[in-house]
């Protein structure tokens, strides 16, 4: 007998190829089965979406190709996963194949059945030898962590009974991770019916550099209970074989806990019962390329899909009164000390359950905010003398300091003061950054790098000098300023730097973190990378050196970001309750009267959020309105804008068009990157539904507009739904 599976394959986002292709098969293939199918001259990986006994309309047997092979030994991807992928593709306006294939490990595409069989065998063997020792699963015998605070207890209990997504609003140092660990334990201890997948937990963090610390804590807690195979990671910093191995472990149910960055939200997890999104406000959860999805928002959707499926499967006995039976759920926890305004608003409205943990573990105080008015500092001072003195004092007491500057390199620009030459990038509308350590000028947008010229390339002046400051310079400057300061043991103070440059080499991040934890470093200078999540126990002073630009940025989200960043950074100080009384957050600013600092001083996020939400409501901005961006890249700015404006003109008459506002096309702030001109057009609507329906109707228009004569030179376009930067 012949069957007719519809197979989803990787198709470019706008290729015009339909959602799935029809093939022929002698076997009835379950939806979700992974197959290899011929496509053009190649053979590609695909996912069976459905399988029919009838040939597709208008196609004869001769016109369809046969499925080449089935990936043996792999259970099909389940309906909830397929629903998630389908939703993500529709919502973010991408092709189903693109999203589905991006969710699978790249190496799966290359393996033959023999190679795959070997991998699976190796996995099974590893799982068998990784099993925990007998008796280790009895509660209490393994590391259970310390006692919970009252707040943690309450949060855990509330989480357990929550009937909606949970927003865990916990101060930095309030012990959110311990709540995640306990909630995970509860889920993993839940027995599942015979034949079902064992329960699984997904824990996401915004950045790769936060995974080692989290992984260590989860391994320590759960390996003795569930075996060395129970915890796996999934992030883009892993090699293709590592990613495949983690994915297989998750897909087959061998891994009980998956820790990862945003890509992990699309992993196949058949027994998923809990999703944790830590630092849920972090912009890194939004993908900036391909399908521009928000992993946080997809996590909320995914938990809903899983919960609905569990409810359907549960069939509570009609003899029991309603409410007597505990319905199984897939919980989702969004954790943050400074939640996104979207999540905060959802909690205000009762769509999310807000759980507050305002206290720090051990009862320590949050650091005191000290604003340094730069108007009153010596002219040209990069670091205010009182700040340097305060740091010297800490070092002498054996405490650590952290200095935050969101700009890597030595100086953002190198300039000639005779003729006005500046270190512009030849390929971008941006300056190349001066890196003193390797004497280069590097473009942080396209990567274009050259040796620093000996003299001004335009006028030959030998006196070219750096303008502005980056982390390298602050590190150098502090080493000089603190040269005479001694640590308690009499040795000189040590300053180190941590940013994308210092952690580029594999393993260097772990080494640097270990150095910081060991206390060998007294002052750590770095970009926002150091402000997030790290649990340095001996830091008692955190300083933000130059945050002013965010106070007046044109992006309406800038204040929210700055507040979150400063709160996060402040949260690094005084994590050890013994030191917390004296811990301080210093902020150098030229605008100490700015209202943002008043709420920051009180650590009053609710007041800040209320203020911001009022402003957003008045302006019809998210979460009160809904937005999308149409972005275009082209050889010329005129072509990019012509495409965008043409697409706007031709949208008249589309469904819901009268509920949509389209703004004129504008160049991006950094207009040209790697010789590509960039422009965007903002789309706004008062309702999410109207925006969604309009966008899907608009797709065909967008494809047509590619061939507008005035848009000649258009390279690509993309729709960004719920954009984070405008
Ligand atoms: Zn010059
Ligand atoms: Zn460049």
Low-confidence stretches: 138-143
The secondary-structure class comes to: alpha/beta
> What are the bound molecules?
zinc ion
What value does the Rg take, in angstroms? 28 Å
N-end to C-end Cα span: 55 Å
**Lateral arrangement of strands in the main beta sheet:** 9-10-8-11-12-7-13
Q: Give the % helix.
A: 25-40%
Number of strands: 29
- The portion of residues forming beta strands comes to 15-25%
What form results from the Cα inertia axes? globular
Largest sheet: 7 strands, parallel
Number of helices: 18
Task: Give a written overview of the molecule.
- This protein is α/β, with parallel strands linked by helices and 726 residues long.
- The protein is built from 18 helices and 29 strands.
- A 7-stranded parallel β-sheet has the order 9-10-8-11-12-7-13, with helices on both faces. Strands 5-2-1-4-3-6 form a 6-stranded mixed β-sheet.
- Strand 3 and strand 4 (42-52) form a beta hairpin.
- Helix 1 (79-91) crosses helix 2 and helix 4 crosses helix 5 (176-189).
- The longest helix is centred in the middle third of the chain and has 20 residues, at 295-314.
- 44% of the residues are buried.
- The structure holds zinc ion (2 copies).
- The site of one zinc ion (ZN) has 8 residues, from loops.
Descriptors:
18 helices, 21% strand, alpha/beta, 6-stranded mixed β-sheet, binds zinc ion, 726 residues, 29 strands, 7-stranded parallel β-sheet
């Amino acid at each position: 007998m012949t069957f007719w599976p519809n197979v989803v394959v990787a198709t470019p986002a706008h290729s015009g190829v339909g959602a799935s292709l029809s093939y022929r098969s002698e076997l009835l293939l379950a939806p979700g089965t992974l197959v290899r199918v011929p496509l053009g001259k190649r053979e590609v990986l695909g996912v069976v979406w459905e399988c029919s006994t009838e040939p597709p309309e208008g196609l004869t047997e001769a016109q369809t190709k046969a499925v080449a092979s089935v990936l043996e030994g792999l259970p099909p991807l389940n309906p909830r996963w397929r629903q998630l992928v389908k939703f993500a593709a529709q919502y973010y306006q991408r092709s189903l194949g693109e999203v589905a294939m991006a969710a699978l490990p790249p190496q799966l595409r290359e393996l033959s059945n023999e190679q795959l069989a070997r991998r699976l065998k190796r996995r099974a063997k590893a799982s068998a030898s990784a099993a925990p020792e007998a008796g280790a699963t009895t509660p209490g015998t393994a590391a259970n962590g310390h006692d919970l605070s009252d707040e943690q207890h309450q949060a855990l209990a509330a989480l357990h009974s929550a009937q909606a997504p949970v927003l865990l609003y916990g101060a930095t140092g309030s012990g959110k991770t311990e709540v995640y660990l306990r909630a995970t334990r509860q889920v993993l201890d839940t027995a599942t019916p015979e034949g079902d997948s064992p329960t699984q937990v997904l824990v996401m963090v915004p950045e790769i550099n936060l995974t080692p610390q989290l992984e260590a804590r989860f391994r320590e807690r759960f390996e003795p209970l569930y075996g060395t195979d129970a915890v796996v990671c999934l992030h883009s910093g892993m090699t293709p074989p590592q990613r495949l191995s983690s994915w297989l472990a998750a897909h087959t149910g061998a891994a009980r806990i998956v820790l990862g960055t945003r890509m992990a939200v699309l992993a196949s997890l058949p027994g998923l019962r809990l999703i944790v999104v830590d630092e849920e406000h972090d912009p890194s959860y939004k993908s900036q390329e391909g399908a521009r999805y928000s992993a946080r928002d997809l996590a909320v959707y995914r938990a809903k899909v899983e919960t609905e499926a569990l409810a359907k499967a549960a069939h509570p006995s009609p003899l029991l009164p309603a409410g007597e039976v505990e319905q199984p759920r897939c919980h989702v926890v969004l954790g943050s000390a400074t939640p996104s305004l979207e999540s905060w608003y959802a909690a205000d409205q009762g769509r999310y359950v807000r759980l507050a943990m305002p206290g720090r573990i051990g009862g320590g105080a949050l650091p005191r905010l000290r604003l340094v008015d730069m108007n009153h500092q010596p002219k040209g001072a990069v670091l205010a003398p009182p700040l340097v003195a305060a740091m010297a004092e800490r070092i002498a007491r054996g405490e650590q300091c952290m200095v935050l500057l969101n700009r890597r390199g030595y100086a953002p620009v190198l300039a000639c003061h005779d003729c006005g030459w500046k270190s512009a990038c030849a390929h971008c509308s941006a300056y190349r950054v001066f890196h003193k350590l390797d004497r280069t000028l590097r473009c942080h947008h396209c990567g274009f790098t050259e040796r620093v010229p000996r003299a001004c390339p335009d006028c030959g002046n030998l006196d070219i000098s750096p303008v502005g400051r980056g982390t390298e310079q602050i590190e150098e400057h502090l080493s000089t300023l603190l040269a005479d300061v001694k640590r308690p043991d009499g040795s000189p103070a040590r300053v180190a730097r941590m940013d994308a440059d210092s952690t580029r080499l594999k393993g260097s991040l772990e080494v640097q973190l270990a150095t910081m934890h060991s206390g060998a470093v007294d002052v750590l200078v770095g970009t926002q990378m150091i402000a997030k999540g790290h649990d340095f126990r001996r830091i008692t002073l955190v300083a933000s050196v130059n945050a002013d630009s965010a106070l007046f940025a044109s992006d309406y989200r800038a204040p929210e970001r700055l507040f979150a960043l400063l709160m996060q950074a402040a949260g690094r100080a005084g994590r050890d309750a013994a030191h917390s009384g004296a811990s301080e957050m210093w902020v150098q600013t030229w605008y100490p009267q700015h209202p943002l600092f008043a709420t920051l001083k009180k650590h009053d996020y609710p007041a800040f959020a209320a203020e911001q939400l009022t402003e957003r409501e008045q302006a019809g901005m998210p979460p009160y309105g809904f937005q999308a961006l149409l972005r275009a890249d082209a050889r010329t700015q005129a072509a990019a804008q012509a495409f965008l404006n043409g697409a706007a003109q031709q949208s008249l008459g589309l469904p819901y068009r009268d509920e949509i506002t389209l703004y004129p096309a504008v160049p991006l702030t950094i207009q040209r990157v790697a010789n590509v001109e960039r422009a965007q057009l903002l789309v706004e609507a008062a309702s999410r539904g109207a925006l969604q329906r309009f966008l899907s109707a608009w797709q065909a228009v967008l494809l047509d507009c590619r061939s507008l004569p005035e848009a000649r030179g258009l390279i690509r376009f993309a729709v960004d739904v719920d954009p984070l930067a405008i």
